[in-house]
Specification:
Immunoglobulin-like; elongated; 8-stranded mixed β-sheet; about 500 residues; 30 strands
C-alpha cells in the first residue's frame, strides 16, 4: 500500500485540544489519575501525522491509549512521540546560543522612559547565568528583554503528543484518549461536632481535589478511587511538594459510592470544572446523631517495640520500668447504617469539635483514619486527658539465673552467679515481676480507663497475682478496665511469672 501523508503545518494534522465531549477523570489518593479525553480525528488513507497538545504536563507516555470507542474504525499507531519541552525564555536562549539577537533596553532621559533595541550575541545561555556580548564587551546577565526571531513550525507551546497513524480507509471520528498522569490527587476530610454535653455527634465529610497537572478540565466527569492500589510512583516525573450516609438536603447526593474490584469508587454526580493549580472541595457524606463514646487509655510503659529483645535485658531489673503519667483520650463510633452512617469511609483527616455553652465551636483534636469499611469501628486518638493521671511502678523483681552460666550476673547482688558445686543442679531461668498501677480521676464525672500492660520479657508467662477485669489481647499484652468515680484514686497490682 502506497503511503499517503496528510500534511498541514509542516506535516502534522493538528487535533483540537478542545474535546467535543466532557473529559473524564478517575483520581486516586496516591498522587495520580487516569484521564479520558476526546481527540477529533480526520485521517486519510495511508499514514497520517497527528499532533495533540491537550495533555497534562505529567502524562506517563507509555500509558497512552488511543482508540475508536465504537470499534468501527481500524487504525494503527505506528509511532508516538511525547514532547514536554514547551517554549520558554531559557529554552529560546539555548536554541539561539552563538547567535546575535536584539534586546529591548529601557533608559531614562529627562524623566521619560526611552526604549531602544540593542544587538547582543548569546555567548552562553546559562546556567548559572547567561553571558551576552554587547558592543565587543561581555556582561553577565541579560542587557534587557530578549526579542527572539519568529518561532519555528515545530515549536512546542504545550506538552504535546505526536502520532503516526496508519489506516486503510479515510475516516472522521472522535477517538478516545486515555492516559495516566501525575499532578492530581484527592483526600478525604471529616469534621465531627459534639454538643456541649453528650456523645451524639454530627459528621460532615468532604473530598478535597488538588490539580497541579498543568491542565484545566472543563465540565469534567470525576470519579475518586479509594483503596491501596499498587502503583509505582514518580508518575510522569511528578513529585508532590509537600494515610444514614449520603448528601444533605433533598435530591440526589453530590457523591455516590460503589464497590469496584478490590476498592471503592466515588462518583461526583454532576460535571465540575477543575482548574490547574486549583483546590476544590465537594461534600460527600453528612450524618447527624451518630452515637460515639469517649475512650481513655493508659499505657504506662515507655518501652519501644524495638527494645523488646529476646536476650540480655529481660533479666535486668530496670528493663522497661520507665513510665509516664499521661492518659490518652480517644473517641470511637461504629460506621453502620443503624448509627446513621454505613458508607465506606476513605482514608483521611478527622477533626473533632465540641460546641461550647456559648454556642461557639472549639477544636478538640484531630488525627488520620485509614480506609474503613462499613460496620467497622472508627477509633481516633485526639490527645491526652488533662484531668486523668496514671502512675506505674515496679513493686517487686526476682530472678533465678542458675549456673553454670559463664559471665552471668545476679542483679540483686551485682556479683557473678556461682553454680552449686555439690549438687551441680542446672534448672531453667525464671523471673517474677510485680507492678502497681495507680489512676486518679479529677473529672466531675465517672470514667472508665483501659489499662494496657506489655509483658515484654518473654512469651511464656502466667499471672500468679491477677487483677480484676483483665483479659489477654495478644501474646505480649493484657488489658484491664478500671472504673473511677469523680475525684477517685484506685491502685491495682499484678504479678507475672516468666520462665524459659
Amino acid at each position: 500500500m502506497r503511503a499517503a501523508i496528510a500534511t498541514l503545518f509542516s506535516g502534522y494534522l493538528f487535533a483540537s485540544g478542545v474535546a467535543s465531549a466532557e473529559p473524564a477523570l478517575t483520581i486516586y489518593n496516591q498522587d495520580f489519575a487516569v484521564v479520558r479525553d476526546t481527540v477529533p480525528l480526520d485521517i486519510k488513507t495511508g499514514v497520517n501525522q497527528v499532533r495533540f497538545a491537550g495533555t497534562t504536563a505529567y502524562v506517563e507516555p507509555a500509558s497512552v491509549i488511543l482508540r475508536d470507542p465504537s470499534s468501527k474504525q481500524e487504525f494503527r499507531v505506528l509511532e508516538q512521540n511525547y514532547r514536554a519541552d514547551p517554549v520558554s525564555q531559557e529554552l529560546l536562549l539555548a536554541l539561539n546560543e552563538g547567535k546575535t539577537i536584539e534586546f529591548e533596553v529601557t533608559t531614562q532621559e529627562a524623566g521619560q522612559a526611552r526604549r531602544e533595541l540593542v544587538p547582543g550575541k548569546i555567548v552562553r545561555s546559562g546556567p548559572p547565568q547567561p553571558i551576552i556580548e554587547v558592543g565587543g564587551k561581555l556582561r553577565f546577565g541579560l542587557p534587557g528583554q530578549p526579542v527572539f526571531p519568529a518561532l519555528a513550525d515545530d515549536t512546542i507551546l504545550k506538552p504535546t503528543l505526536l502520532w503516526l497513524i496508519e489506516t486503510e480507509r479515510p475516516a472522521k471520528f472522535d477517538a478516545e484518549l486515555s492516559y495516566v498522569t501525575g499532578g492530581l490527587r484527592w483526600d478525604a476530610d471529616y469534621n465531627l461536632v459534639l454538643p456541649p454535653q453528650g456523645n451524639r455527634l454530627d459528621l460532615v465529610g468532604w473530598v478535597t481535589m488538588q490539580n497541579q497537572s498543568g491542565k484545566s478540565f472543563e465540565n469534567a466527569r470525576i470519579k475518586l478511587m479509594a483503596g491501596d492500589v499498587s502503583k509505582i510512583q514518580d508518575v510522569g516525573g511528578f513529585r508532590r511538594q509537600r494515610n444514614g450516609g449520603g448528601g444533605g438536603g433533598a435530591g440526589a447526593p453530590p457523591v455516590t459510592e460503589k464497590t469496584f474490584d478490590e476498592y471503592h469508587l466515588y462518583t461526583l454526580e454532576r460535571p465540575t470544572t477543575l482548574l490547574n493549580q486549583e483546590t476544590k472541595q465537594v461534600e460527600f457524606v453528612r450524618a447527624a446523631g451518630v452515637q460515639s463514646a469517649a475512650l481513655y487509655l493508659y499505657d504506662g510503659v515507655k518501652l519501644e517495640p524495638s527494645q523488646w529483645v529476646p536476650e540480655g535485658p529481660r533479666f535486668e531489673a530496670e528493663y522497661g520500668v520507665q513510665g509516664n503519667k499521661k492518659v490518652a483520650a480517644m473517641r470511637e463510633f461504629t460506621n453502620s447504617a443503624a448509627n446513621h452512617l454505613g458508607l465506606p469511609l476513605p482514608k483521611g483527616k478527622v477533626r473533632f469539635y465540641r460546641r461550647n455553652t456559648d454556642g461557639q465551636l472549639e477544636f478538640t483534636g484531630e488525627n488520620i483514619i485509614d480506609h474503613t469499611p462499613r460496620d467497622e469501628i472508627v477509633r481516633v486518638f485526639t490527645g491526652y486527658a488533662f484531668d486523668l493521671v496514671g502512675e506505674r511502678k515496679q513493686a517487686e523483681f526476682k530472678v533465678n539465673l542458675p549456673g553454670p552460666w559463664p559471665g552471668a550476673i545476679d542483679p540483686a547482688t551485682g556479683l557473678p552467679v556461682v553454680s552449686n558445686p555439690t549438687t551441680n543442679i542446672v534448672s531453667s531461668p525464671w523471673v517474677d515481676e510485680s507492678f502497681e498501677i495507680t489512676l486518679r480521676n479529677h473529672k466531675q464525672e465517672r470514667v472508665e480507663v483501659r489499662v494496657v500492660e506489655h509483658l515484654y520479657r518473654g512469651t511464656n508467662w502466667q499471672l500468679t497475682k491477677k487483677p480484676d477485669s483483665w483479659r489477654k489481647t495478644d501474646a505480649h499484652t493484657i488489658e484491664l478496665k478500671v472504673q473511677l468515680k469523680p475525684d477517685e484514686q484506685r491502685t491495682l497490682s499484678y504479678t507475672v511469672h516468666y520462665s524459659w
